[in-house]
Amino acid sequence: MRLTTFAILLFTSSTSAFGIQYHIADFDIPSPTLLGFSHPKLSPHLRTTLSLRNSSSNASALEVLTHAGSPWDTCSIQTKKLWVGQRAYQHQRFHIICHGLPVYGAFISSHGRRDQVVLVQGAIPGAGASFDSSEGVLDEAVVREQMISYSMVQPGKLVYYYIHGENHLVPAYLYRFKDERGLPWEGLYHGFTGEALAHVPLHLQAYEGFSFLENPLQSELEKVSIENLSTDQDHLDGQRFSVYGADILSDRAVASENLFDYDPENEELFDQVQAYYTLERAREFFGQYFPLEEDPRIDVFTHTYLDNNAMYLPAISEQDVGSIHIGVADNIFMQYLNRDSDVLIHEYSHHIIYKFLTATWGESLTLHEGTADFFAYVLNDDPYLAESILVGSPYLRTAEIESDRKHDLEASYRGSHLLGQFWSAILWDLYRDLGSDALEIITDSLNYWPSQAQLSDAVLALVISDKELKDGQNVCKILELSLDRGLYEAVSVTGNQGCDLKDKEIIRFATEDSNDQSEFDNDLACGAIGLRGSSSWSLLLLTLPLLLWIRRSGNEA
């Protein structure tokens, strides 16, 4: 995660190098201190100097002068000796704590016993804030929240400093405003370019509720944070999702004193809370890899008329919103349909993938389904999908398919959901080998998918992303994994990319037109993507022979 911290100064209007006269404001809490100026005028660099005066052993007693205006401010520091060299000229390095807060990137460095003026660099997150710095990383959202709450903001225009990127200071302006719905916001804007640096919704606040993290069979019921809800009501209406029952007229979950306190026995209302929490968790994950700041809200319907099924419907116009529909399990073949987080994550994954891949038939649908399965595997850290929803069976689908099964040998008689397992297996194998690097490659590769992508397009996209991001270090691994899962046709189109694939038999497997919409067969479509008014509603059918085949496959795995 990219570290972004805020340091705050309040100014009064006058003139100086940048048209303002500045001084530190008198707050009721300790004023924020910047290790950030080499002279009383503004500097774009975060730095100051001090002299150890042959007192490196007593460095914790020093005060760091910060030239933050008139009068100068001081930062009483506590230091922690990080390392002492063994040679004649010892090198001592100290971590700086200012007002009880770690100064990230700041250190005092001393060589030997010589008096030395050393450079101190760093950034203090925010006055009075309390952070868990055990790993040295701050949550940007937490810092942003603290920036607002500790700055004693008053209505109107205030001038701030924003510590941007690599210890770089810029003046910024804070405004309070209301959006077209009349909801209040605060915006932080670059003082020179006017660029929006941050938008903080003042109308959203955190609630609490109860949820299963993964599903009722593998997780305990936990009290969780229900975040990003509007403050003007106590329903599950947020900036990103609105959650309902079967339709907008159904009873809705309501918070009492900021708590959605529902027992799992109250299925319809409890499951609304479960859905909101799970989707917020998925949204946070995807927000690390895709620009979702302006993503429109999604309507989520639980316990709908879709028997034993779930579906994502994309928006059909700018005035429309996308929607997720989770049906009702019959408790004969299926159970916990609204409570298995894999189902919800899979559906929301369709929303993300649809931004790149709009075709929903043939190999395009195979990619949709396999990629959506993969994201669910990653978020719940196992290669099995929806382990709780099939009565008497261990899971719905998996990336751990048998090594002797090959995509091209089954493509003529399997439906897109089951064929998607081969694609999710490739992605999971890559993720298992490369970890976070694989996630970076996979999410970036979607940018290279055409709107009606085939498997060969997707394999090539992985190759391109790896070359762009990792200098092609994993190209041969990508092709080998694709061949291991039987994507012979796709790899033959992509080519060997200079890899030695002689030991891999590449079969040109003759198949029917892979984008023929008549391909839809008796495929278990839990986790389908549909279009309003399209024939894809037929994907909702579930046949007993297919269910039994899945059970056998699951039990053999």
From TrEMBL:
<keyword id="KW-0732">Signal</keyword>
<protein>
    <recommendedName>
        <fullName>Peptidase MA superfamily protein</fullName>
    </recommendedName>
</protein>
<dbReference type="InterPro" id="IPR027268">
    <property type="entry name" value="Peptidase_M4/M1_CTD_sf"/>
</dbReference>
<feature type="signal peptide">
    <location>
        <begin position="1"/>
        <end position="19"/>
    </location>
</feature>
